[in-house]
Amino acid sequence: MNLTDRVVVITGGAGGIGTALGRRFAAEGAAAVVLADLAADAARAAAEAIGPVASGAGLDVTDEAAVRALVEETERRHGRIDLFCANAGVATGGGIDAPDADWDRAWRVNVLGHLHSARAVLPGMLSRGQGHLLLTCSAAGVLTAVGDAPYTATKHAAVGFAEWLAITYRDAGIRVSALCPQGVDTPMLADGLAEGHLGARVIAASGTILTPDQVADAVVAGLAEERFLILPHPEVADYARRRAEDPDGWQAGLRKLVRKLRASFPQS
Ligand SMILES: NC(=O)c1ccc[n+]([C@@H]2O[C@H](COP(=O)([O-])OP(=O)(O)OC[C@H]3O[C@@H](n4cnc5c(N)ncnc54)[C@H](O)[C@@H]3O)[C@@H](O)[C@H]2O)c1
């Protein structure tokens, strides 16, 4: 897919990776870019900064009726949705003791948010025999987010769901991509680093921290090649291969890194 004249919706579009995608798609000539986010005012401000091609809207992706309404409204205004980026996501920073409310929120945003998006947007795409779904998952969905059990479990579920969609709908003309970045310089990671979270420090120690614009570059290239797995950090492919070939050796290496980081920051 190239982005010229495309109608695009991006959830979690108020900042970070979502806004960078919107900015980049607009620069590539998209016909309309809808930034939808729980933070409605921030989504509108981000859209205004992009320009007239963009618009902002309030949306809670855990509310299926609201996702459906946004899709219907976009199709009514712009005639279709060519690319739907299900990008909203939440981290918790918790382990097995994280409250059930955190596990529930991670499940509802990081997994059911993708399901609601697919249910709402696929009928229109299938009727036209074309369309592209981009699910922002995470490297945590093919590896492990040390320090965040709900994030790890739900991002693995998101990658599994994306793969299921890709296999099921490819022959009907639908393309599906799973975006799996590692560290990206957005509030999600920056807050964790500022608070000294072990998980954030493992990410920082495991590879380059990209800017959201660099992630957008990787997405545009991945969409152009209609790739399923979009890895802005190429090293993640190598980590995933090593993990698949030797799970015990991979885990031993990660535990060694965690011990080293804990020794230098005993408070974490
Ligand atoms: N920053 C990273 O290092 C990193 C790495 C891998 C994957 N990701 C993923 O990238 C995506 C974007 O995150 P980001 O890094 O830009 O962080 P971010 O926190 O800036 O963006 C997440 C956005 O999702 C929105 N959101 C949260 N719950 C929502 C809901 N219920 N409905 C609608 N919007 C909701 C937030 O308001 C926020 O604007 C997420 O799915 C995240 O898990 C981030």
Secondary-structure element series = EHEHEHEHEHEHHHEHH
Question: Shape, please?
Answer: globular
Please give the count of helices.
10
Beta-strand content: 5-15%
Estimate the helix proportion, in percent.
40-55%
Gyration radius, rounded:
18 Å
Q: In total, how many domains does the architecture comprise? A: 1
Task: Sketch the major β-sheet.
Answer: 7 strands, parallel
Associated small molecules? nicotinamide-adenine-dinucleotide
What structural category characterises the helix and strand content?
alpha/beta
CATH architecture: 3-Layer(aba) Sandwich
Poorly predicted runs of 5 or more residues: none
Strand order, biggest sheet? 3-2-1-4-5-6-7
What would you give as the CATH superfamily?
NAD(P)-binding Rossmann-like Domain
Give the overall average pLDDT. 96
As for the CATH topology, it is Rossmann fold
Total strands: 7
- CA(first)-CA(last) distance: 44 Å
What is the CATH C level class, in words? Alpha Beta
Protein name: NADP-dependent 3-hydroxy acid dehydrogenase YdfG
Family: Belongs to the short-chain dehydrogenases/reductases (SDR) family.
InterPro entries: NAD(P)-bd_dom_sf, Sc_DH/Rdtase_CS, SDR_fam
Organism: Micromonospora marina
